[in-house]
Amino acid sequence: MYDYLIVGAGLFGATFAYEANKRGKKCLVIDRRNHIGGNIYCEDIEGINVHKYGAHIFHTNNKEIWDYVNQFTEFNGYINSPIANYQGQIYNLPFNMNTFNKLWGVITPQQAKEKIEEQKLNAGITQPKNLEEQAISLVGTDIYEKLIKGYTEKQWGRPANELPDFIIKRLPVRFTYDNNYFNDKFQGIPVGGYTRIIEKMLEGSEVKLGVDYFKEREELSKTSRKIVFTGMIDEFYNYEFGVLEYRSLRFETELIDNENFQGNAVVNYTDPETPYTRIIEHKHFEFGNQEKTVITKEHPTEWEKGDEPYYPINDQKNTELFRKYKELAEIEENVIFGGRLANYKYYDMHQIIASALNCVNKELQKNNKVLQNENQ
Ligand code: FAD
Ligand code: UDP
Predict the structure, then answer these.
(1) Does residue 33 carry a catalytic annotation?
(2) How far is the CA of 224 from the centre of ligand 2 (A)?
(3) What is the pLDDT of residues 160-174, one digit of tens each?
(4) 132 domain-assigned
């Protein structure tokens, strides 16, 4: 008998397992995939750590989370500085003075601000109501047209004026010549890849791979006192209110007999015609000097039940549907829901760790309390 059956060997499940194990709890961790790590899994190809499910850069402003993750591995000093390729022209990201200079020839922050203000006024936007309006009011129409609209509509498969504004607020807009994609104080790539972190986290737990919870639900549920579920919440409830929508991705990976393909880890293709959104050249995350290189083209695709769910579509319809499932989840006594699929949330890795730590603390303090009460 285990204390916890953890469904999903991704970052949430592994963090929960590590912490529960540390407090003397026995965990069985299962995953329907044949490897641990969930979406942060890395595969070694010719000595290069290939981010199998899309590029992952660890970044956080939270010192506690940074210290926490550093206990499992060392991080290199990689700073993410993607570039955008729009019809053969290269622009720096995130939107900063280098971008403004290339686009408009402006030199000072004041000149850039005036240009943006002028474009915002011409577009007549006062209260942005969607991603398109939010983007124009942040960076003006030129950048919106060249660097945002095409990328966003490929990525999400929907018009930018039907998407929530929070998606674009993820990106910094900076009036300095600084190409760091993130504002966070701490950033890097784990030396040797992400899978090692998960391996260490799962050391004290039993792990079974290639096991789908829903195919053996009854037997698996009997193995443990409680379940930590990190899969899709609507699947857990047999889609009884309807299907939550996602955006999926197809990764086209190639090994190339060339030492340096594109000179940068991430190049975004922001025009609407190129079918992929970005090309990742994995070796540059770790300053690799291998003779060959591996690149991955990221093609956004429509998601259908059964496909890999990558990005939740947090529009109004899906948010309302999720709320219904959440109400059911909240009254479950023996199931804990966590991670990006069960919470239907566009979480980054540092947020997943923070939420797993909060969850395990709440859970085990509660257990302690129950035990104390029982002893009284
Ligand atoms: P997952 O990693 O999805 O793990 C859930 C696991 O549960 C999966 O392995 C799945 O197979 C398993 N599972 C589901 N259902 C079942 C079932 N029925 N039975 C058994 N197993 C099941 N974050 C960053 O901080 N920086 C980045 O640069 C970044 N880039 C990203 C790029 C892409 C393309 C994507 C999609 C995400 C990115 N993220 C990034 C987010 C990051 O991947 C997540 O925050 C994190 O991996 C989520 O961990 P998780 O454990 O919640 O989910
Ligand atoms: N985005 C864009 N152009 C770019 C990069 C990003 O318009 O060159 C928009 C797009 O809508 C994307 C969002 O900004 O979904 C968030 O970008 P981020 O790089 O954070 O996406 P992720 O890495 O999570 O896919």
Answers:
(1) no
(2) 40
(3) 999 989 899 889 999
(4) yes
Distance between CA 11 and CA 29 in Å, rounded? 12
Ligand nearest to the CA of 235: 1
- 217 carries an active-site annotation: no
Nearest 5°: the CA angle 340, 155, 163 is 75
33-64 confidence digits (pLDDT tens): 999 999 999 999 999 999 999 999 999 999 99
What are the two backbone dihedrals, phi and then psi, of residue 107, each rounded to the nearest 5 degrees? -110, -40
Ligand 1 atom, smallest distance to 311 CA: 36
Q: Where does ligand 2 bind, in terms of residues with CB under 6 Å?
A: 84, 93, 147-148, 151-152, 155, 167-168, 170-171, 268, 270
Asked, as a colleague might, if the bond just before 94 is cis with ω within 30 of 0, I would say: yes
Q: Using the 3D structure, point to which of 168, 200, 225 is the last residue of a domain.
A: 168
How far apart are the CA of 17 and the centre of ligand 2, in A?
Answer: 31
CA of 152 to the centre of ligand 2 (A): 7
Domain that holds residue 103: 94-168
| 108-157 pLDDT tens trace | 999 999 999 999 999 999 899 999 999 999 999 999 999 999 999 999 99
> Is 352 a domain residue?
yes
- The number of folded domains in the chain is 2
Clarify whether 257 is annotated catalytic: no
**Cβ-based neighbours of 275, under 8 Å, separated by 6 or more:** 154, 299
32 carries an active-site annotation? no
**Residue 349 within a domain:** yes
Looking at the domain assignment, is residue 142 inside a domain? yes
Q: Environment class of residue 345 by beta-carbon count within 10 Å: exposed (0-12), middle (13-18) or buried (19+)?
A: middle
